[in-house]
């Protein structure tokens, strides 16, 4: 299966318009490919997920630092790939989330080569100047073949510190004008989708929300297409010839794991790094391949 981004049709745009997003709130979905066969267009380098304001609407964006100047892009345009460089062997201390001795895949709080370094960010200029207080991040849903644990490193640079996401419905408060990196653990190979909402408090008038509209399997990204209709993301399958087609099989859900403060024996070097600074497609029925 593949996640694509395209402009909604007129009928889809009407459906999306009927599903209003909460003010001052943006929702998005991160896609992570894990394992030996991991593939994606974000395999290395520095990335931050955070809110932005575009035309009076709060939208989710990822800061992509692989080029200079950095680009703030739609999260649906990226698939983060965690291959062999991200794989570690789970010690006994990780028994609460993985079988000891099994392979798990880690985005650590410090950067390593060959692993996309994903963090959270509240430092867009219009967020710093146009909102007050922290950004509230909420994990709405997780789908994938295994479990996901997200946490800050402990005070001495190892173990599990402050919990970030313990499961759907749990949240994390990121301070104003802050850039931070956490540890993201995935327990099985395959493709994961993490649906995340961020909320801000504007200084003035309320901001329009984005990302909540849904037309079947569509999710609005917050961007507008060349014909004035909303851009949407959608998971599609592939026929044997490689053409896009509708998925007829449901996705498999997976829980995230509650975290316990334990001492890890594997290297989580450095506490969570924090910086504070100034300012008309054909549709065919198919099975997931």
From TrEMBL:
Keywords: Membrane, Transmembrane, Transmembrane helix. It comes from the Bacteria. The chain crosses the membrane at residues 257-279. This is Actinobacterial surface-anchored domain protein. The lineage of its organism: Bacteria, Bacillati, Actinomycetota, Actinomycetes, Actinomycetales.
